[in-house]
Amino acid sequence: MSMQPMPWPGPDPQVAAAIHAMYVGREAPLPVVVRDRLGELFSDGQFGVAFGVRGRPGWSPGRLALITVLQMAENLTDRQAAEAVRDKLSWKYALGLELADTGFDASVLSEFRARVIAHGLEERVLDLLLARLVGEGLLAAGGKQRTDATPCGGRRAGPEPAGTGW
User: Fold this and answer.
1) Sign of the C-alpha dihedral, residues 20, 21, 27, 32?
2) By C-alpha distance, which of 52, 48, 85 is closest to 68?
3) What angle (nearest 5°) sits at the alpha carbon of residue 141, between those of residues 113 and 41?
4) Could you give the CA distance from residue 121 to residue 39 in angstroms, rounded to a whole number?
5) Domain extents for the chain?
6) Is 80 exceeded by the pLDDT of residue 4?
């Protein structure tokens, strides 16, 4: 699989119009808020080491990273996440996909995660996400932090949500 780093396109005008009409006066779902507040959250270039320059082009690793974050936030299986890319307007909006985009096979997500792990980038998504959330004032450093005390060496603790005082 190859990758040519490119910036994400803006949301498709048809999708954006539908999203804005659907959420007038209501709280938008997480994918819409992420796109509106954080824009292109993960650039493809940040994952370049895991992808070659030759071979068939694959899905944008930056977009796959965001899909993985949304998948975890909504507690979805790979199949459900791939289906969300195909049929949820909020996900198409967040990813800058056209209305007619048919998405990808669910196996792409496990292949992406395997590449990320094989190249030692498993914390990259978390680190990038935390940096952007702190930069936007959505998370604040300090206070008590929870840790994962699994015997396998869980992820390190990060900043706490802003205003929680945990």
Assistant:
1) negative
2) 85
3) 40
4) 21
5) 13-135, 139-166
6) no
